[in-house]
């Protein structure tokens, strides 16, 4: 038999550390230990040390449950390792499984439980909600732990499907009351930059309950010990030809390589290429055993005895002889569940790669025949893979669709969409018939539903649009209506330049009178929502009620809950009357387990509370929706992500910036959603003093996907442009942002007041250093900004607290601009009053940062008017807020303001000399000290002394304030 060390060599310390982390032998039997991520290179010994750990756990009285991830590429079966784990639990604890399934029927979606208890087929739309399944598996592990502490081991998570990774995230983040510990292993050397596990590992390792443990390579001394252990095996003979130092040098501390090099020591030549090295072992097999191993390699890393017998085509005795030889040579290893697995994945890969292309195709054809004929059992994903690799496109198509349906029913939308898209590619790649086109339309709808559930609504909409545009001109209206329905639904996830109203009308026009009720109900639900957005309330009510009746008649509880949310939302109407109906709609969705309608209902409820100025209640509602999405494993799905954004805005407004920033640290976020969240982060980073203008500018191309990104990123651009004195850039950024937002939100939108106020404020930052001759032209821009930021005539929606605050700010910034420009200078009393109103408005609408800036502006104006006593408490309050926020720009500004001498009354020393008056006029005109010196034929140093005297006499904090005071007192024309 092949060499394999009887004892664990060089891993005693690692095993003790790992055992301590999971709580073995440390008095933690009743509570478990920490969850562990076991990392290590391929072949370094992860499986072996986990085998030892499981032995210790069993001796310690723990139940050990093991699941393996397999390398099926894009044909992965959803939750594959947990299917294996559930099979073990169902066999060992059938009563526990039955009890949990009664409370959590989603458990019946998993094949082992369904086989044991007789599961039912859940409605596909509801099944895509994997949150119920996650909760069911969590509850099952809890119940199992009541019998004895549980150690769950998931091996090779670098091959895990997306649903398995999401389920692990759920289990890592949701505490167990009982002693349940998870260990997940993965190949560290497989994690390239774009590997799907990479980001989730970063997220997992930040959790306080998770510890990452890296299993390093063996030392040279440990390798020598391992070589000696292996060479002492009776079948190794006298170890002839064994060069221990060569093995030490070439194995590089990898235990698997050591074993292979020892095993190959008797060969005439030892190739350096590992694949060739692995294949040397096959030379020791006879033809029958080699045929068995070749056949097994086409199945993947493992294959059932039943399937191998059906495919190999050998009589039982011959097959057993070949298997026995492969097992003795440690090429295949038998498992207790009747499967054979390659001792190492690298070995299976090397065997498969060594096959000729024709051999591979023929082997996959035989697997297809065995699985299709019923000679062996398997899953649809495996059949689809074999059929695709065999070139049997029709079987691959049927099996791929079935695999997608299985993944969707099990709550695996990522895997479902992959299977559906593979089937779509197969259909699209052949001559289109009417039957094929109809199947294609239905597949696109299924794939889009799965993509949306996985958080990829943008891709779903694009897929549906491309397919609709490729339909023949005489295609049935039903097909167009189905695809348009998907486009409408996915467009609701983003606010962009898609004309949803036109799509909705086109879909309704295309829908035939004899359309299936489920198609009509779904389109009517989407149509009602678009009508609500368009404020066509009566038409929306009629369409919504018809959709609701159809959904209830069809038993589509999820769709009915969706329509109920649409009918209950305020949609621009006075919010107060709709708050309780929305609560009822949310309760309805929760009651039937319709997660996405519940998320949307919570979000709409938050909007209504916000519009009713019940801000704290709105914030809590946003938080609950966001946390529900995370808890149920769909953080990027529509409305779960929107709730994250809304919760961020609440935290930002109320000054909880560190909590808000934590929401932007979002690993695994779909690319289409990242820019919106990034614009939020940049807003806080800039407010804390970072120069992020270039990063904000780079977000512009993404506005087309989600225009809300422009709302924040353009503010960052305008403030940065104002700080560097670039008025043209301020105006350009404003126009670009308003143009994008106006396309998505309508010609005039409430946020325009904020954009205008910030734009004028940015211009004010540039005005003092601007030559007098350029200021009139700049003020024409200011007047336009003010006009556009003021509500147009006929706008009948009353301002809420936020709107009132920004409306006051627009007027106050406009007066300040005229004051600084010296054009149509407002009366001091008018200017002070406008800013007092602004401060008061932001005290009621608690935007902590904008309140601080408003107080700074009022303090500056009061100080310029000689009322330093009134300015001082405003500045102190602003300083306190800025310190809490970490808003460095405010603190720097206040520092400059507070360093100037303060004068409480006028006296003889306040009078400016003729030379000082002359210099003040040039300062007000925007001249630098050097320019003034050249014009007056004096040195720059002398000008600097005069400017300092002017500031002291006027009690000004800087040149800008001195110029403003000079204009107000009539010292400057």
TrEMBL record:
Residues 905-970 form the HTH luxR-type domain. Keywords: ATP-binding, Nucleotide-binding. Signal peptide: none annotated. The keyword Phosphoprotein does not apply. This is LuxR family transcriptional regulator. It comes from Nocardioides luteus. The lineage of its organism: Bacteria, Bacillati, Actinomycetota, Actinomycetes, Propionibacteriales.
């Amino acid at each position: 038999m092949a060499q394999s060390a009887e004892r664990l060599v060089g891993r005693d310390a690692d095993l003790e550390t790992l055992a301590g982390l999971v709580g073995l032998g440390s008095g933690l039997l009743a509570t478990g230990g920490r969850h562990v991520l076991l990392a290590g290179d391929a072949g370094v010994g992860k499986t072996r040390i986990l085998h030892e750990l499981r032995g210790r756990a069993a001796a310690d009285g723990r139940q050990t449950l093991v699941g393996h991830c397999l390398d099926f590429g894009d044909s992965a079966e959803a939750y594959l390792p947990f299917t294996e784990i559930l099979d073990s639990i169902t066999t060992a604890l059938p009563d526990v499984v039955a009890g949990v399934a009664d409370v959590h029927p989603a458990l019946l979606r998993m094949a082992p439980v369904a086989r044991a208890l007789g599961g039912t087929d859940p409605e596909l739309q509801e099944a895509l909600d994997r949150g119920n399944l996650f909760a069911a598996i969590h509850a099952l592990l809890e119940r199992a732990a009541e019998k004895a502490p549980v150690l769950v081991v998931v091996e090779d998570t670098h091959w895990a499907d997306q649903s398995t990774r999401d389920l692990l995230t759920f289990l890592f983040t949701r505490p167990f009351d009982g002693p349940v510990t998870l260990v997940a292993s993965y190949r560290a050397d497989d994690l390239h930059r774009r590997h799907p596990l990479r980001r989730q590992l970063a997220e997992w390792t930040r959790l306080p309950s998770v510890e990452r443990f890296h299993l390093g390579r063996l030392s040279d001394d440990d390798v020598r010990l391992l070589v000696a252990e292996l060479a002492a095996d009776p079948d190794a003979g006298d170890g002839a030809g064994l060069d221990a130092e060569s093995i030490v040098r070439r194995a590089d501390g990898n235990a698997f390589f050591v074993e292979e090099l020892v095993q190959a020591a008797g060969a005439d030549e030892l190739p350096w290429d590992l694949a060739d090295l692995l294949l040397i072992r096959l030379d020791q097999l006879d033809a029958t055993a080699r045929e068995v191993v070749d056949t097994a390699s086409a199945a993947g890393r493992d294959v059932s005895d039943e399937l191998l017998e059906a495919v190999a085509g050998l009589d039982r005795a011959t097959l057993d002889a070949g298997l026995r030889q492969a097992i003795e040579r440690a090429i295949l290893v038998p498992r207790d569940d009747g499967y054979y697995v390659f001792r190492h994945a690298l070995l299976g890969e090397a065997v498969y790669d060594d096959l000729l292309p024709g051999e591979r195709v023929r082997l996959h054809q035989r697997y297809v025949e065995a699985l299709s004929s019923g000679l062996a059992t398997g899953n649809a994903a495996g059949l689809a893979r074999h059929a695709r690799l065999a070139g049997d496109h029709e079987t691959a198509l049927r099996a791929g669709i079935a695999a997608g349906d299985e993944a969707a029913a099990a709550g695996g939308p990522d895997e479902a969409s992959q299977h559906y898209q593979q089937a779509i590619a197969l259909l699209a790649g052949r001559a289109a018939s009417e039957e094929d086109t109809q199947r294609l339309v239905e597949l696109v709808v299924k794939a889009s539903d799965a993509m949306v559930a996985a958080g990829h609504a943008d891709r779903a909409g694009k897929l549906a649009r491309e397919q609709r545009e490729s339909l023949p001109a005489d295609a049935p209206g039903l097909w167009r209506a189905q695809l348009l329905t998907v486009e409408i639904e996915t467009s609701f996830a983003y606010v962009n330049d898609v004309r949803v109203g036109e799509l909705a009308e086109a879909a309704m026009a295309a829908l035939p009178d004899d359309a299936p009720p489920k198609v009509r109900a779904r389109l009517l639900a989407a149509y009602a929502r678009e009508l609500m957005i368009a404020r066509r309330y009566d038409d929306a009510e009629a369409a919504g009620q018809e959709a609701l009746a159809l959904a209830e008649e069809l038993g589509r509880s999820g769709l009915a809950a969706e329509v109920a949310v649409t009918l209950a939302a305020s949609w621009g109407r006075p919010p107060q009357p709709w708050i309780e109906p929305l609560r009822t709609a949310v309760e309805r969705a929760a009651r039937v387990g319709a997660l996405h309608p519940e998320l949307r209902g919570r979000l709409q409820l938050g909007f209504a509370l916000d519009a009713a100025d019940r801000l704290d209640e709105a914030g809590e509602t946003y938080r609950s929706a966001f946390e529900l999405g995370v808890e149920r494993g769909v953080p990027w799905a529509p409305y779960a992500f929107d709730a994250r954004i809304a919760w961020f805005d609440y935290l930002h407004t109320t000054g909880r910036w560190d909590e808000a920033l934590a929401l932007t640290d979002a690993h695994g976020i779909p690319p289409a959603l990242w820019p919106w969240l990034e614009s939020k982060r940049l807003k806080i980073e800039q407010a804390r003093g970072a120069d992020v203008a270039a990063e904000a500018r780079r977000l512009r191309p993404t506005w087309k996907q989600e225009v809300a990104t422009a709302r924040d990123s353009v503010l960052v651009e305008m403030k940065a442009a104002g700080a560097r004195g670039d008025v043209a850039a301020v105006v350009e950024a404003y126009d670009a942002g308003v143009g994008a937002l106006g396309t998505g939100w309508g010609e005039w939108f409430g946020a325009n007041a904020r954009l205008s106020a910030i734009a004028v404020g940015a211009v004010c930052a540039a005005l003092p250093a601007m030559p007098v001759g350029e200021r009139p032209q700049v003020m024409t821009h200011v007047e336009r900004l003010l006009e556009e930021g003021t509500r147009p005539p006929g706008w009948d929606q009353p301002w809420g607290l936020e709107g009132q605050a920004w409306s006051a700010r627009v007027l106050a910034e406009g007066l300040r601009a005229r004051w600084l420009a010296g054009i149509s200078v407002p009366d001091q009393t008018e200017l002070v009053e406008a800013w007092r109103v602004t401060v008061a408005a932001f005290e009621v609408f608690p935007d902590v940062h904008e309140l601080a800036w408003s107080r700074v502006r009022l303090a500056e104006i009061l100080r310029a008017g000689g009322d330093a006593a009134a300015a001082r408490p405003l500045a102190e309050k602003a300083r306190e807020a800025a310190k809490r926020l970490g808003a460095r720009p405010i603190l720097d500004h206040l520092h400059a303001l507070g360093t100037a001498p303060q004068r409480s009354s006028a006296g003889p020393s306040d009078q400016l000399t003729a030379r000082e008056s002359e210099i003040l006029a040039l300062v007000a005109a925007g001249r630098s000290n050097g320019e003034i010196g050249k014009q007056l034929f004096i040195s720059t140093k002398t000008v600097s002394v005069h400017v300092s005297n002017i500031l002291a006499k006027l009690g000004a904090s800087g040149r800008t304030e001195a110029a403003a005071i000079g204009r107000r007192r009539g010292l400057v024309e």
